[in-house]
Specification:
With 274 residues, the chain is α/β, with parallel strands linked by helices. The chain has eleven helices and nine strands. Helix content is 41%, strand content 17%. α3 packs across α4 and α6 packs across α7. This is Pimeloyl-ACP methyl ester carboxylesterase.
Length: 274
């Protein structure tokens, strides 16, 4: 015989289970809140010649302040195919959607590395090359007049352990500020000159094999005071790629002199592809 106390206990238990079930169903039917939105894409920043990853430091601070995860790997600067392979190893290690950003020669690298990767949602070119397959950085630089880079270079021969020889290119320290970063404070430019990474001359003469901008949303920051890549060259490439372009009165080092502007374009690209 079941006691009155036992019946009451069972009723209380059934009531609790019913309440729990209703709560779960209600939660499942409730629209996602703002906190449930998809995570922001990872921004991958590829530096170019005569620079290193620290050239993105101020841009990284802006992006992180707005909640974007960021990766800024070292670019070997040996050639588009080699450097794209190095960048691909980084991309393969980063889960989820990504925005690729390239500065200068780094644009050639992201053009190759970002091809045929569905997780690369957009490309942002910052004072950068947007080469078509078969084009070289050197060829594009000379398409329109205005680059004064050749007269500032310091060629340095190198020999690798396997006997391979070649020539690395630096910008002469005394010419770096005017040539590469005229709108950056002199002290900062001096540090940039001291820490610059050389690019193999052959890298500027190597033809690119792919152009990710052909089938991915593309943005371009065009620098009108650029002495490395003439502004008309940048305009030509951006127009050909149907890029969303912004023109900035800045030197080639716009990521250092105007990081808020550069970060703003990157975030615009990220928002447009979510």
């Amino acid at each position: 015989m079941v006691s009155i106390k036992g019946v009451r206990s069972r009723r209380l238990m059934l009531g609790a289970l019913s309440t729990l079930a209703i709560g779960l169903l209600t939660a499942a039917a409730t629209p996602a809140s703002a906190s449930d939105k998809p995570a922001k894409p990872t921004v991958v920043l590829e530096h170019g010649a005569f620079a290193d990853a620290s050239s993105w430091n101020a841009v990284i601070e802006e992006l992180r302040a707005d909640g974007y995860p960021v990766v800024a790997p070292a670019n070997p600067l040996r050639g588009p195919a080699n450097d794209a392979a190095a960048l691909r190893s980084v991309l393969d290690h980063v889960a989820g959607p990504k925005i690729l950003v390239g500065h200068s020669y780094g644009g050639s690298v992201i053009s190759v590395a970002g091809a045929n990767d569905p997780q690369v949602k957009a490309l942002v070119y910052v004072a950068a090359f947007l080469p078509a397959p078969g084009e070289t950085a050197l060829e594009l630089t000379g398409k329109y007049p205005g680059s004064t880079l050749p007269g500032t270079l310091d060629p340095t021969p190198f020999t690798l352990p396997d006997g391979t020889t070649g020539t690395d290119l630096y910008i002469k320290p005394g010419k770096f500020h005017h040539q590469f970063a005229a709108d950056v404070p002199a002290g900062t430019a001096a540090l940039m000159a001291a820490t610059q990474r050389p690019i193999a001359q052959s890298a500027l003469e190597e033809k690119t094999e792919a152009a990710a901008w052909k089938d991915k949303p593309t943005w371009a920051v065009i620098t009108t005071q650029d002495l490395n890549i003439p502004v008309e060259v940048q305009r030509y490439m951006a127009k050909r790629a149907h890029a969303h372009s912004i023109e900035v009165r800045a030197s080639h080092s716009v990521a250092v002199s105007q990081p808020k502007t550069v970060a703003g374009v990157i975030e615009k690209a990220a928002r447009a592809t979510r």
